[in-house]
Specification:
Length: 335
Amino acid sequence: TQSTWGWIRDFQNMKWYLLVASVLVASVYAQQTVLRKPSGHEHSFEDGTTSTHYCATDSSSKVTSFTYNGDKLSLMSSGCPGYDWTSASNPGEARYQCWAKTVPANPIIGTTTFVVGIYNYKNKTGTNPSPQMGAIGMAVNGVTINSNTDAEGRDAYIYEGVSFDTCGGHPDQAYSYHYHAETTDGCVYTQVTGQHSPLFGIMADGVPIYGAYGDNGIAPTDLDECNGHVDTTHNFYHYHVTPNKTYPYLVNCLKGCLNNSNWLTAQTCTPQATQYDYSSLRSVVTSYSTATAASYTCSKSSANSLEINTPFMLVVQLVAAWVLVVSQTSNFYVK
């Protein structure tokens, strides 16, 4: 009957739609499978913290750009550590991020501090009702330095330390790789016996943080509540990580004013009488850049736009789209 033939024609036409849909789905799935593999050096990365691109297990995906512009220091990175992070035992994985932060190029040391740790003091007294969670600085390899607080307001090292990889970092639920404490020697910097520890990173207030050892390779005993001081090697105020994973691990508070930083909420800050000259630090910081500011773009979907339209997959998708259009405009069904 006519209704039967109409049903058959509709079924034949539906088969084309199903075929086209299958091709499109298969091509997208294949792309995602390719994109989930560690890829090479890129200059543009997806914004936010949900990139589908794995960090490589070597230095090919580590991108950093540290640029001074007047009274500001721009910190941009892919967030990838540049080494094998897969020994981390938590179920997440490290993926490309789009870190773009601005901190003071000439830190101003204030008369008050901004407590970021879970305690008000280094001796673990006075619980901080509002500990800072998440990133509060950036290491010289572009990995973010997080506070000593986990997502539930607890001591991150005690409750998450078991999941750290062999270098002392791990990714969070949003796939952002980061540090909570001192890293293993040789991963971010290499300690030379008898010498001051190298630069570890820059905190949100622009103040540098170094490894665990001060003058002559000796762990300093005069660190303040923030875990900072001035020594002979570096005659400006700076922080130190604590040796042997002891609290506060990195810093417990920030002593620099946050007025010229877009990282944390600016606090009312009164400069102290003694300030310091950080100009000697500039050449050291910029030496860790792997990309120039001009060649590095940190924008919302640029990573996907760079890699998702590979030549083969693009051809497949164009052909599928063409078939779909033809099926709509031509006599494509059985008579």
